[in-house]
Amino acid sequence: MGQGVKSSYTVMPEGSITTPKGFKAGGLHCGLKKTTRHDLGAIVCEVPATAAGVYTMNVFQAAPIKVTKESIQAGGLLRAVIVNSGNANACTGKQGEADAYEMRGKFADAIGVPAEQVAVASTGVIGELLKMDRVLGGIEELPARLAATYEAGDDFCQAILTTDLTKKEVCVSVIIDGKEVHIAGASKGSGMIHPNMATMLGFVTTDAAIGGEALQQLLRQVTDLTFNMITVDGDTSTNDMLVAMASGLAGNSELTQAHPDWAAFADALRYVCEVLAKAIARDGEGATKLVEVQVRGAVSDDSAQAIAKTVIGSSLVKSAVFGADANWGRIIAAVGRAGQPVNPETVDIRLGDIVTLEQSRPVGFDEDAALEYLKGDTVVIHVDLHGGDGTATAWGCDLTYDYVRINAAYRT
Amino acid sequence: MGQGVKSSYTVMPEGSITTPKGFKAGGLHCGLKKTTRHDLGAIVCEVPATAAGVYTMNVFQAAPIKVTKESIQAGGLLRAVIVNSGNANACTGKQGEADAYEMRGKFADAIGVPAEQVAVASTGVIGELLKMDRVLGGIEELPARLAATYEAGDDFCQAILTTDLTKKEVCVSVIIDGKEVHIAGASKGSGMIHPNMATMLGFVTTDAAIGGEALQQLLRQVTDLTFNMITVDGDTSTNDMLVAMASGLAGNSELTQAHPDWAAFADALRYVCEVLAKAIARDGEGATKLVEVQVRGAVSDDSAQAIAKTVIGSSLVKSAVFGADANWGRIIAAVGRAGQPVNPETVDIRLGDIVTLEQSRPVGFDEDAALEYLKGDTVVIHVDLHGGDGTATAWGCDLTYDYVRINAAYRT
């Protein structure tokens, strides 16, 4: 998917999740965060949008995951998603469930839609009950803040952040049936990031007309190539959730795999999710740079994915990148422990354009040039196994003092 | 193994790898390390010892692994093992192999034994050729340094260290057939530690009489409960190797599983390997404390092991322990992503004696007491799943600023 398809989408630098027709958004500070940063936000669609979701595979799933699954399964349609940060509402038992249902019901009432057409998401600390008086106060105020403007989209993007330093959003347009279709997204990181079937919080809006089942299948496929290919710290959250909503207001004929523009739409959605996923990796806790691992020559794409994720997840590789140390020995050690078929005699490794290993033998390279390259804000590690046609790309970040600092005292 | 057996071994605080009858050891500085610390060592047995080895499962296996496998397979007997630190002789191609064979041959000549009765081990930086002139110079000097004293054993223990801060050794005695049998061990860590079928370097000497096959099987079983249950950073080395040598000089009748004292011997060997494994975890790169994870109530021991290793390997759990933050939410998130059957409603978590979660519900606890406990030099995390009889224990360490510092500039 996306491979070999000429990109037909256009990036809209001023676009946001409110650009697709039919969507408003907003955000505000209701009092869950200790600072005055936004901590409650919503996206609302003026018509029932076909919806799809992918969720964490963690055995311990937070209360909002249960509520959102129920909403999307009820009729496959969503009018809104309500999100809080500062508290994950995870491991909070029956009270946590009741709180998530109350968030859904109260926000549905506030905007005049059925409760089962509202999704709920939460992110933040695990194991503490939501301060529901603050949440409900925020829900009363929120409808008046909703707008289809860039600023309102920005408020939403801010409201879903926790330890993230930057908001994460993207918008593209793509021509379907000669109509301009928009796809936009917002997401947040930035710790407990090793998505397994989903990521932390991600939201995609589009005005494309597309059936719920087709959207669900496509979202799953795209997730496997994007959000499921990033890691910050190897930990999978209890609250991972990616929700897509399609208003259908662009006026195209319904997208299915048989539609002549299916590939263009799929490629545009993949781009949106890839931008959001890479933004999460680059803004990983404590990170100073984005690291990309490109594997080729594996026996299969699945095998390449496993190897790419092992390399990108290695604490030793991540520390070496932080220190701008061209320590390819750690890269090959990670390749070799991925549990995949690898010929130990035929591996090439490049850091950007700098060849360090060819056919598994060290190549003399310019250490100063390597240092300069590794000091940049993006580092690409190329691994060619010369063992087949499998390829994969994974994204992550470096391991830094700040990662330890942030996580040594997260609750306090 | 060891479960339900009353311990019949006695720890010998002044014992070392030279305590079992028939063994000498020694170490010196030959010039591979930039400091003047020892970097070449050997253990020599006065008779051909039955031998067993377990090795890294990393696809990229260093040259000495190949040579040692060949030696042990040749006749199952070893007279000596020669070890260098400061250079792993990994990813060094044909020249690296030739160098490992030359180390073996030259040391065999120097002590007058057949080359195929010598094992070789190396540890240090990957991808650089050994400075063989220095190694060979050291091999000439080494025989004169070999002795059966505690000090000579200490020289060996020092010679195998890399970033380790402390040497790791242990010695026990156990009565077999009314005879005093000794088992001793030495090991080194302290990064790239996530053993998969073996560990970094470990050496066990014993004067027990035991056949090669029985020793190999037992060593494998014990490794799975000890060295394979530690992690420092999730990375598996190219040089992991554990070698055991049994001189048979204690005079017991040959140990087999049918021997009445088999369980006592097995338990003593398990203890030796557990002490060495825990010492590696406690001295993990940058570590300030030993972390132990005890899992019970899993559906099987294998399942408990997988969960224990996931918790001990979580960067978020490790950072929280460093910060003395009783963040049990990260522990349960790790339990939930281990890919094992877990009932999300029945989990208890304790930090030492401090209950933080009962039946998956938060329990109010004394934060000051928790802080005090987590500031100690050993932290035990208890997880009870209430889902079966499976138990496991894993060991690791905290994730600290110093881990990042050490690994941001290892080569330079």
From TrEMBL, chains A, B:
Reaction(s) catalysed (UniProt annotation): N(2)-acetyl-L-ornithine + L-glutamate = N-acetyl-L-glutamate + L-ornithine; L-glutamate + acetyl-CoA = N-acetyl-L-glutamate + CoA + H(+)
Keywords: Acyltransferase, Amino-acid biosynthesis, Arginine biosynthesis, Autocatalytic cleavage, Cytoplasm, Multifunctional enzyme, Transferase
Subcellular location: Cytoplasm
Site positions (Cleavage): 198-199
Domain of life according to the entry: Bacteria
Keyword flag Amino-acid biosynthesis: yes
GO MF term (any one): L-glutamate N-acetyltransferase activity, acting on acetyl-L-ornithine as donor
Site (Involved in the stabilization of negative charge on the oxyanion by the formation of the oxyanion hole): 123-124
Active site as annotated: 199
Residues binding substrate: 162, 188, 199, 285, 407, 412
Functional description taken from the UniProt entry: Catalyzes two activities which are involved in the cyclic version of arginine biosynthesis: the synthesis of N-acetylglutamate from glutamate and acetyl-CoA as the acetyl donor, and of ornithine by transacetylation between N(2)-acetylornithine and glutamate.
Family: Belongs to the ArgJ family.
Quaternary state and interactors: Heterotetramer of two alpha and two beta chains.
Protein name, as recorded: Arginine biosynthesis bifunctional protein ArgJ
Species of provenance: Paenibacillus mendelii
Lineage: Bacteria, Bacillati, Bacillota, Bacilli, Bacillales
